[in-house]
Amino acid sequence: MAGSALQNTRKIPVLDLQLSSFRDPQVFFHAPTQRWIMCVALSRAHQIAFFGSTNLLQWTELSRFGPSGITGVDYECPNLVEVPIDGGKTAWVLFVSINPGAPQGGSATQYFVGTFDGTRFVPESDTTEFVDFAKDFYALQFFTNVPSGNPVSIGWLNNWQYCQETPANSWRGVMSLPRRISLAPDTTQRLKLIQQPEDLAPLRGTASDATPPSRMDAGSSWETPLPAAAAHEVRISVEIDAQPAGLPPGDKGRSGRFVLNFLNSNEETLSIGFDAFTAQLWLDRGKLKGFSHPFFTNSFSAALTPDQRKITLHIVLDKCSVEVFVNNGQQTGSALLFPATPLDRLRLSATGAGATLSHFELFPLKQTVRAEEGPI
């Protein structure tokens, strides 16, 4: 019952609906009802089926969810997880991946917040929410029995539109960073997903002593070499002036933007920026030269809280990927990157309005996987 031992059985399969698109099961123990719960994708029907069992051998269908949200062609890789809410309560979140047919193109993972009584999942609203604002995060899954008790997820940092054609050496493809998951109400009191990287401390080298000015006027920039490392972590908090430079009071005629450019001498640039007067963030990989594909979209954006002029960014830049965590995980963007030569410098720029920096950290990160045939 506790799931501490495995006993082989000849009874295979234990559940068969005679459907070719019945797959991707997730199984967990539901303590209040003292039974195992399995959620399975009925892919082409755009439904998630819930089954219950007391012995993992005999299963009874309990309920179905969907079609709901954006269906795409297939529902895939469901996960139902109880997630903590800031303040001590919890809610159930059903994660459903779709492919193809995501708004950005190809594959993506959406989520629904609601209740689960051991039989049926009921969403609290019909709003469709996505885990990631960029294009390369799919098939989110959760670790079980995490010592902290907090839910921790991981995703496939890729997209089915081009995953079999991206540059490769000894391997192709990558997983995301593990992410600590919680919920918090937004300005409308609707619960939204919060994602933050899980414990990067063991990977950090010595922090860079590069220090940008605490005050940057409109039109100014600051630049530093990136430390020699397998990957890099940047943490920065910045507030953009309420008044654009050179305009009379009350006139917001131009944008006030703060931009982080990761670049190299090959005129390649990865741009991550914040426009304070529209409260939007962007991620632009369009000036990298190492990969071209008709579905490899150049840029992505996320809408933040209206009238927000302060932003906190937590960025992890790897050899072929970037993950951006915005405002303590309120938004996340994950994207593959293929520069022709490594990005080795960081430039900060303020345009249209001045900016005040309250926090900046730059860390080299250690390599976690040994390259067998050279770097990607």
From TrEMBL:
GO cellular component, one term: cytoplasm
Residue ranges occupied by any Glycosyl hydrolase family 32 C-terminal domain in the UniProt entry: 227-362
Region (Disordered): 194-222
Domain annotation Glycosyl hydrolase family 32 N-terminal: ranges: 18-197
GO MF term set: sucrose alpha-glucosidase activity
Database matches in Gene3D superfamilies: Exo-inulinase, domain 1 (2.60.120.560), Glycosyl hydrolase domain, family 43 (2.115.10.20)
Recorded family membership: Belongs to the glycosyl hydrolase 32 family.
Protein name: Sucrose-6-phosphate hydrolase
Species of the source: Acetobacter malorum
